[in-house]
Amino acid sequence: MTPTGIDLEGVMIPTTTPFDPSTGELDLGGFARNLERWSRSGVRGFVVGGSTGESVLLDEDERECAWEVARDVAPPEKLVVAGVGAESRRATLRMAARAAAAGADAVLVQPPAYYRGAMTPEVLREHYQAVAGGSPLPVIIYQVPTRLSTIELPAGLVGELSSHERIVGVKESRSSLGAVAELVERVQPGFQILVGSGAHFFAALEIGALGGILGVANVAPCECVQLHEHFRAGRMAEAGALQRRVGALHRVLVVELGVAGIKHALDLLGHVGGAPRPPLRPLAAKGRERVAAALEAAGLTDGCPRS
To answer: Which residues are annotated as catalytic?
Structure first.
């Protein structure tokens, strides 16, 4: 256990959200089946309601239902982290309370970004301190991938926030090893750095990250977990070999094709993927071919590497 009281080390899956193809409502049964399979891969836990989970397209009741299912299905030792970030502090704190009631272990909080010009470091510092002070659960700061609509959080600001006893870590998703290195230098001892880029997971661990919340782990959870385990055991050649496979998958599924690509990959692997929620669109034929080729190149047939 870390000084913060919650140990985030390892690989977490930022889960996708399946929808019923007829009604468009949450497919909670399909979500539960995915969680059961993912839980056997050795992952540390699940982030439910993040970018990969189409969180901005879900209403609060849907998020809460997904958190409840995750807590009911996931083994007790698996973490459930609830994505609760909203544009208003009021809504963020309301969802944090609902996440606690649903049994989540921590909350992932993205920065409010709609009034981007007004979100100075001073405003963001006040926001995160107030959220951490009012949340019943520990807070993980979420640096959203910069290809999405977000704000870049200065490393100095994260360093300041790392001294707050209720802010336990950060998910750094800018795909920049320089950003990871700067965070390692700035944050307080015991503050936990997780990365979101499967393309640089091995290198981020070398720099000082403790783990990752990896979109690619939806489809390659065993490889991501094994990469982390090899690294911790000092088996660098094995970790490097897995990194090449994980990185190639990340670049196609996460960066190039996004949520629709990850979901189609889940379908091909026998999980419940399905189409994204409109206005996002499912993949066209060319994209589906790219997914199939990427999975074949990685040697994936069921979410774990072939022997």
So the answer is: 171
